[in-house]
Structure formats: C-alpha cells, structure tokens
Design brief:
By secondary structure, the protein is α/β, with parallel strands linked by helices. The chain is built from seven helices and six strands.
Length: 175
Amino acid sequence: MYEKIFPSKRFKHTLEFLKKHVSPSQTILDLGVDNPFSAIMKAEGYTVTNTTGEDLDVNQNVFSKSKHDVVTAFEIFEHLLNPYTILSEIKSEKLLISIPLRLWFSSAYRSKTDMWDRHYHEFEDWQLDWLLEKTGWKIIDREKFTHPVKKIGFRPLLRSFTPRYYIVYAEKIRN
C-alpha cells in the first residue's frame, strides 16, 4: 500500500519526522502549491492548507492572514531568493523545513526551460541552522538522510551514502 503513496524514501522519511513532531490535531500551512506530499499529509489525517503560488519573495501576506499551528516547507527554500524575510514573517510557533543539501560532486539544479524551477540556494546544514537562529527560531531536532537513485554511475554511487536532504524541526523563540 505505502509503495503507491510513497514514491520515494524521501517522502517516507519526511512523514516519519513530521509525525514525530506534529500532531494531526495541529493545523499546517504548507509553503508551495498543492503537491504529492501535501496529499500524503492529508491522507494521514493532517489539516493542510497550501499557499496558492504567490511569489513569497515579494509577497508574504499569507503569514499575516495565517492562523496555523505549524508551517512546513519541504524543498521550498532553495527556490527562494530571500528566505531570511520569509522566515522572519512566519507567525506560527512551529516550523518544519527540509532542503536538499549542497553536494560537492553536483552543481546546483537549474532548469533551462522554467525560471521558477531552479535552486538559488543549496545550503550546507550550518547555513540553514544559522539562518533559522538569525530569524528567531530554535532548532529542536534535525536529521540528514540519503536518497539513493536507481541509476548506475559515479554520482548515483555517491548518493547512496552521502546525505542529500536535511530536515529540521524548530520552534519560535519569544523575544
């Protein structure tokens, strides 16, 4: 059953981390349009509202209107030019973020046909940690994990043991 729901190890790992820190009774604002993982969260009993495709670099109004308990951002921040402002504007008390890590053997992803589908930031773990700290978040839990691909070659071999994803659970620090 789960093989149809989880197209990848990444989704399975992300759901386990979410369940560890967020109760289905808490409401979630998921940054990004409706997507396969938001469907998984809903199927698992979470109440999820997605953003509607607005350019979050320019327009953070969604945060002033949001009354959600938790904000999730799964592989979103690498696409944004200004993650500092967005993290500063979030009003929720809890935050779950996952990002692809910068890999020494692979350059940043860039679509040649879609100007939105590219990575402006590929963080190292310490860079995301520092960004969260500077924007008023305290990291409670974090994990790195691999995501092997079913291909043959040097880079696929490296991906089998090099952590590709970093997931963080943080809580807002009161000033």
